[in-house]
Specification:
Molybdopterin biosynthesis moea protein, domain 2, molybdenum cofactor biosynthesis, 6-stranded mixed β-sheet, 395 residues, molybdenum, Molybdenum Cofactor Biosythetic Enzyme, Chain A, binds magnesium ion, 8 helices, binds adenosine monophosphate, MoeA_linker/N_sf, alpha/beta, magnesium, Molybdopterin biosynthesis moeA protein, domain 3, 4 domains, 20% helix
Length: 395
Amino acid sequence: MISVEEALHLVLQHKATLAPEEVPLSQALDRVLAQEVLADRDFPPFDRVTMDGIALRAEEVQAGTTTFHVTGVQAAGAPGMALGEPGTCLEVMTGAMLPQGATAVVPYESCSFLGHEAYILAEQVLPGQNIHKQGSDSKAGEVVVTRGTRITSAVVSALATEGRAQVQVLSLPRVAICSTGDELVPIAQHPLPHQIRQSNGFMLAAALQEENITASLYHLPDSAAEMKESLVSILQEHEVVLLSGAVSKGKFDFLPQVLEELGLQLVFHKIAQKPGKPMLFGTMPGQRVVFGFPGNPVSTFVCYHLYFKPWLQASLGLPTAQAWAQLDQDVSFKPALTYHLPVVLHNQSGCLRATPVTSTGSGDLTSLLKATAYLSLPAHQTTFREGEVFPVTLI
Ligand code: AMP
Ligand code: MG
C-alpha cells in the first residue's frame, strides 16, 4: 500500500497531453490559452483623449493665454482633426483622437464658455494632461497574453481588444463516469428497501461541470462479463474513465480483474488513507487513464478532489499549489493511514483555521454538506494538536 504523497506523485506522472482546439471567444472563459497572443496594433492605437473638454496647446496657456476660440468638435469615432491657428482650441470627447497639434486636454470642469470663447479656469495646464499616449500600454507585435494562461474575464477583454473572435485553447479530455453496483437505481425511481439511489454519478458529473467538462454517464452491473462488454466501448470513446465502486475486496468487486483483462497497466491499487483506501489508478493503451474510486459517496468525493483534480490541473499546465490550514482543536486518529478530516475553514487574524466536522465515516454524506475542505492528517502521527498546520484540500 502506498502513501497519499506517492499516490499523488504517480497520478501526476501520468498527466495527459491535451491538443489545442479552436473555440469562439464567447465560449473561452476558464479555458487555457494554447497560443501566444500578440498585439496587432499599438494600444492605445492613437493619442486618446481621456476627458471631455477642450484640446489646445499647453504652451500657449503657460505663456499667458487664457481665452481660446472654439473652432469645432472632435467626437469619439470620428477621423482625427487638426488644431487651427494659435489662440484656437477644439472641443474633444473621451475616446476621441487627440487633434493634430494639440498637447493637452483641459476638462470642461476647468473651463467656462461664452459663445464660441472658452476661458481657462485651471491654474496650470501641463503638456500631456488627459492624453493616453499611443502605444503606452502595449506596442504592436508585443505579447499581450502568454500561452498557458487561464482565460479570466480580464483575459477575455484583452483578447477582444486584439480582435480574437476565435481562440486556440487546450482541449478538455473526454470523460466517462461509470457507477457500479446492483443496488443502485436511477434517482427518479423509487428504491425498494434493499436498493439505493445512484448519487455518485451525479456528484462527479456536477464536479466536472465546474471544470467545463460534460461527462457521459454509465452504470455497470455487478457482473464481470457485462462490465467487460460495456467497458470495451467506453474505453474506446473516452480518454478518462472515472469509476465508482467495485474496487474493494467484495465478492462482486470485479473491476480490477476486468480492467486487467482489458489491458490495464496498474499504477497502484490501495492508498494508506481514510476515506478512500481501496482506490485504484492505472493506464490503458492509447493514453487512457482510469481512476477507480471506492463507491462510498464520501470516498468518491474525496478521491476525486485529491487525485483527479490535480491530474486535470497538471494536464492543463496549471499550478497545483498546496494550501495549508491550522487545526483549531485536538484530534486523535490511531490507524497508520492519512486521515482526510472534513473541516470548515475560517479566517482568524489572517490565519486559515480548520474546525473539524463531526462525521460517522465514509458513508456520511451529511459531512459533505457541512465541510468546506479536507485537512489531511499524516499517517505517521496519531495525535494532532490545536495549532498544528496540515495540507488542506478545498472542496
Ligand atoms: P463499493 O465500493 O462498490 O463496495 O460500494 C461501497 C458503498 O458505496 C456501498 O454501500 C454502495 O452501495 C455505495 N455506492 C456505490 N456506488 C454508489 C453510487 N453511485 N451512489 C451512491 N452510493 C454508491
Ligand atoms: Mg459495489
